[in-house]
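#struct-help
A.M.: can someone run this one for me? Single chain, 419 residues.
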Amino acid sequence: MIDTPIEWTNGNLNDLCDLKKDSCNPSACKSGVYVGLEHIDSGRFFMRTYGKPEQVVSAKNRFTVNDILYGKLRPYLDKAVVAVTEGICSTDIIVFTPKDKTPSFFIVSLLHSDRFIQYAIQTTHGVNHPRTSWAALKDFPTLIPPLPEQQKIAAVLFKIQKAIEVQELIIERTQELKKATMHQVFTYGLSGEKTKETEIGRIPESWDIVPMARAYDFTKKPKHINYSNFDSVAFIPMDLIPNDNPHLGKFINKKSSEISSGTYFEAGDILISKITPCFENGKQCIIEKIPNGFGIATTEVIPVKEKSNLSNKYFLFYYLLKDDVRSMIAGKMEGATGRQRVPNHLLKDFLIPLPALNEQKEIANIFLTIDQKIELHTAKKSALQDLFKTMLNKLITGEIRVKDLDVDLSEINNQENQR
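D.P.: on it. Structure tokens below:
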């Protein structure tokens, strides 16, 4: 049981902000941006992308700087941001205006708290598109700290959010570097040699072009393997296969009696998804270690392994992630619309570049290093997100106090002064 801070008062959301009722026809809005639920990220204080008002035809809600935009449609009840510009937003977004000097970022912090989200969920109504309303949310009971502590709470959480943004920016820039590097090394190689034009594009003169099946083996289940001889077998469903990353995070151990179908694979294999849109999205991974040395995956993958002294699995893994290569293969998928697949024979006959093995390994190591950087900053981002969630819930309830801390309020004050 948390003791209520003496200086804090009991109140509700209506004590902190008002509903803003200001709709307009997009054609009458001469400036600003458009915000839909798709432009608001869960758990974030800020928007990173916007739409264009001229693309909207129906009347929308108007907002200005420091208004709070809250998604009222389930399952988007964890979407709440502070507006840093003026514009119009979807009618599935409620616009709140802070009362008096209440910091916008304190209100948006409250809207991200676990207590508020659970409260909002309980107030939703409707069958096909459950939603909440201001009439239901305004009575949300909450403790209200004095203004100076509101500002400090907002400032602390603001800084964590900004730190998350820094990690996101590093990840985005590194992903851009990865894409640019792919084009460079798969076109010009690493040694600066002359290039030649081929049926698969420009490549270094010393590189060969071969069908994939000549450089790599397509794994098949050996006749001597009987699943019933094993207590359990590793199983990998499609949702555990990562996008654009070689490392498998986890797998499921299944009793052999529970296995009725699946694709046999072995340690060292590349699992390449073959169904749309998983293939286009880069869902594939490399199996480094697995119990028993083999496992079962979804039937929607093709397992491929390198050939000793000829090919490198990571070289192929990264080559298959090139946008133009994916598009070329995807354009030859077979099957009904929406359930198209890459057939095995297509990959076996698909032409790929094949440099000397040592150059394959050098190229692979470049991309592995880039991916390690992405993974490092992804882990930092995840840790900051966990810190943010923990701090938010403890600060909003008074379990952690910041009233006596020397907190820099300049960023919060600069934003609030635009009100």
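A.M.: thanks! The first strand starts at residue 9 and ends at 12.
D.P.: also worth noting: The CA atoms of residues 196 and 205 lie 5 Å apart.
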